[in-house]
Amino acid sequence: MAISKDFKISLITQYGGKKENTGSIGTQIVILTAEINAITNHVKTHKKDFSSKRGLYIKVQKRRKLLAYLNKNDIELYRKLIQELDLRG
């Protein structure tokens, strides 16, 4: 259900530059997207796991708030992430 540590580190280095750059907005959005995809697959098979659904909703809202912040402050990075992560249809 959770993403592996190695996969998370590879996402951080790909989108954040260095392994320690976990706080940048783009990196946070990418990690949240990977976690959302993992939890979504889990919830599809375990339909009555309501605590995982709640966690999924919380992560989706957090990503939504970060995307709104990024849209307001750095539109180029926002558009790049939306395209690369295939968000917003």
UniProtKB/TrEMBL annotation:
Designated name of the protein: Small ribosomal subunit protein uS15
Gene3D superfamilies linked to this entry: S15/NS1, RNA-binding
Naturally occurring in which organism (per UniProt): Candidatus Malacoplasma girerdii
Signal sequence coordinates: none
Example of a GO biological process term: translation
Family the UniProt entry places it in: Belongs to the universal ribosomal protein uS15 family.
Gene giving rise to this polypeptide: rpsO
InterPro entries: Ribosomal_uS15, Ribosomal_uS15_bac-type, uS15_NS1_RNA-bd_sf
A single GO cellular-component term on record: cytoplasm
GO molecular function terms noted in the UniProt entry: rRNA binding; structural constituent of ribosome
Subunit structure: Part of the 30S ribosomal subunit. Forms a bridge to the 50S subunit in the 70S ribosome, contacting the 23S rRNA.
UniProt keyword annotation of Oxidoreductase present: no
Taxonomic classification: Bacteria, Bacillati, Mycoplasmatota, Mycoplasmoidales, Mycoplasmoidaceae
Function: Forms an intersubunit bridge (bridge B4) with the 23S rRNA of the 50S subunit in the ribosome. One of the primary rRNA binding proteins, it binds directly to 16S rRNA where it helps nucleate assembly of the platform of the 30S subunit by binding and bridging several RNA helices of the 16S rRNA.
Coiled-coil stretches noted in the UniProt entry, renumbered to this chain: none
Any Pfam family: Ribosomal_S15
